[in-house]
Give the backbone structure.
Amino acid sequence: MSLYKRGDIWWTKLYQDGIPIYKSTKATDRREGQRLHDIWSGKIAQGSFSPRADQLRYEELVDDLKRDYASTESRNLVEVGKRLKHLDAFFSGVRAAKIDASMVGRYVKQRKDAGAANGTINRELSILTRAFRLALENRRVTIAPVIRKLKEAAPRQGFFEPAQFEAVRRHLPVDLQAAVTIAYTYGWRTQSEVLTLKKGQLDLEAETLRLDPGTTKNDDGRLVYLTPELNALLSAQVDRVRALERQFGRIVPFLFPHLSGATRVGQKRLDFKKAWGTACRLAGVPGALRHDCRRTAVRNMVNGGVPERVAMKVTGHRTRSVFDRYHIVSPADLKEATRKMGRTVTKTVTVG
């Protein structure tokens, strides 16, 4: 019998791929129970039936998503974890069927009230969207909520002119001068790629510096050749770290460890926001970001004639669209373009 009672509630017995499924209709009226049974039978025939869709919780969506990312290696799990932190706090314990456009809207409002930028919120919503798409593919849900993205601010246009960068660098401690020069020269991310460097990634004899695969945002490794300036700066930095090792009688693996501090000396340096802010203020460019060094590196390489494919390999940009966003054009660039065009026109007229 396909329809039967348990107490006052009608239950149905369905078959999906030859496997019996027992499901409550939550109805006390037999006709309503039969109606739901017929609907579910039709969905089974169409291949769109998910017996646990009304019970599936947000945490299960996320677990499936993490397993998918881990198996496909399509996303950095550390980055995903940062995005999920806020989603987890809001949606944990909620059934997937209850997550609709209205609830997503409340999440967006909460994040905006907390000061999150539209771009940050959009990255988080992308994770949620992907979780539901995966659940649809696996037939764990039958419908996904409409999740609309927010309008994002135009990409930041900040960069350093050479004199500005030199002024900021001059007000930093000597070890950090070497660190920011790497970011300024190659466009490497200061916190996640430069400060994490170990001495073994630097080869002064071969004049190379490398980022190992799996340690960057896109997991790709990178190898660059040192400029004479960086060769000198990093050679001096290695000498400072070795002096620290001799002083404390232990190996310090990091290229930019804390060089002072009773409890932190020799430990990996995680950040230097305060020192950076002070240096920018003293240099007359308050509010400048360390990420402006990355934009500046792209601009300098392109303006210097480095092929874009090579420049993208150095900076670690995978897509042309993102790389182009970092290529900032300044008024000085436009004036130089006009000067070059004028010179070309004059030459053509003279030859003619």
